[in-house]
Each structure stands twice: as C-alpha cells, then as structure tokens.
Amino acid sequence: MDSGxxxxxxxxxxxNLPKKxxxxxxxxxxxKKENRELARQRVLNEHVFASLKRFRIIAERYRNRRxxxxxxxxxxxxxxxxxxx
Length: 85
What we know:
Layout: H1 29-53, H2 69-84
C-alpha cells in the first residue's frame, strides 16, 4: 500500500506501509531500500487493476444485474490470466 492508507494498520496488522521521512528524521538507506521493494510489489498490483479497468467493470458503475457481477468479473479475470500466457 502507499502512504494514503495510513490508518489501515489498526484493521490489518500485517499490512506494510512505506516509511515516511520528516524534516528532522531523514530515512536511512535500509528504509529507502524497503520503500523501493514495497513500490516494486505495489506496481505489479496496480498494473493488474489498470488492465481490469479497461473492461470498465470496476472503473464505472455496474448497471446490470448484481447477481451476475461475480460471474462477469471472474470471466474478465480469466481473460486477463489467459492473456498473460
């Protein structure tokens, strides 16, 4: 997650947030390395969300039957996975 989810650790103890520097406490080299690793992992997830949004099922309001949302979303995810191979 990025730093926009600062309160998430109260709900999910295992969540990883990047370290933030302040005016008087700069980041160490280890903290910068950990932040870069988190960013590498996060960008992979963001690419998946972006490609799923191309189908407009999660980018816009879903206006069809709610019962079929799961089925259609799973079909789109299957198409995405098929495209990876």
